[in-house]
Amino acid sequence: MTLHTRSSAETNKTTCSLWESFRIQCRVIWALMMREMITMFGRHGLGFAWIFVMPMILTAGITFAWSLRGVSEGGADISIAAFALTGYSTLILYRNMPGACGSAVKMNVSLLYHRHVRVLDLFLARIILQISAITFSLVTLTILFSWIGFMSPPIDPLKALNGWIATAFFGIGMGFFIGSIATKYEWVDHLWHPFSYILGGIAGAALLMESVPTKFRNMLLWFPLVHGSECLRDGYFGNKFTPYYDLSYEYIFSFGLIFLGLLQIKTIKGYTETYH
Q1: Helix-strand-coil percent breakdown of the chain, rounded to 5?
Q2: Which of 13, 59, 202, 265 is the most exposed place for a label (fewest CB within 10 A)?
Q3: Which residues lie closer than 8 Å to 89 by C-beta, 6 or more apart?
Q4: CA distance 131 to 129
């Protein structure tokens, strides 16, 4: 009997090769992120800083508009500024990623001729930019509004972070899945924008689950986005309202969506020729 064994040198070589490949792809994604920011906002003035400023302006505008209207939610003792900030930030976190991914291949198809650039890299570069910009907006406006007295600081920041991360994973899954389909069928991207606002409105961005009748609440809790939104607000508001969420459900749904999205991304290659 002949036994075939792998030497330690071969094992080390494989490990080094995997690590080097990972480093190369990280550099590729970083380069794509820099290219995206310069392409969108240029080098002059604020330049790529606009990618962080724009979500702040939009979120602050929505917050002030709701505050002036005196919108309240279910009579809860919750600052409308904090309610609008958490709701609109959640909405743009999950809706921006599919939109960004849907046009990623069309705008960068020539880059796919490079050996180390893949469709997944284009998607990841845009997703990381969106998550970074919107997270920066949420944290900055939370600090600013707390400082000027518009709202109280988050009661449990770690719980709020957990809800934010769950929402981000849902957004990544939607980015991969909707973005890959929109790459092949452009009409999907056009439908996504209005549909995302409707979905965000009924899935927690504009309301608290405690204010919804039980019959309808049980239906809404099937939407994964509700759970991350409720957890985020639980971290911000604490016992000022009764939250309803199960993050394990949202994580399971999100990882399933990410897996389906990755399968869809593998089918894109043949469609890139249509953009030439």
Answers
A1: 80, 0, 20
A2: 13
A3: 55, 59, 134, 137, 138
A4: 6
Q: For 110-140, how does the pLDDT look when each residue is reduced to its tens digit (9 = 90+)?
A: 888 887 888 889 999 999 988 988 898 888 8
In this prediction, residue 148 has a pLDDT band, given cuts at 50, 70 and 90, of: confident
DSSP per position, 182-250 = HHH-HHHHHHHHHHHHHHHIIIIIS--GGGS-HHHHHHHTTSHHHHHHHHHHHHHHGGGS-----HHHH
Count of residues in the chain:
276
Local structure of residue 152 (DSSP, 8 states): P
Helix H or strand E encompassing 12: helix 8-41
Q: Which two tokens stand for residue 226?
A: 């509700």
pLDDT, average across residues 164-173 = 93
Whole-number Å distance between alpha carbons of 167 and 221: 14
Q: Residue 25: which residues within 8 A CB-CB, separation 6 or more?
A: 116, 121
Asked if residues 167 and 229 have their Cβ atoms less than 8 Å apart, the reply is yes
pTM of structure = 0.82
Place of tokens 């400023």: 53
**What is the rounded CA–CA span in Å between residue 158 and residue 232?**
9
Which amino acid is located at 124 in the chain? Answer: L
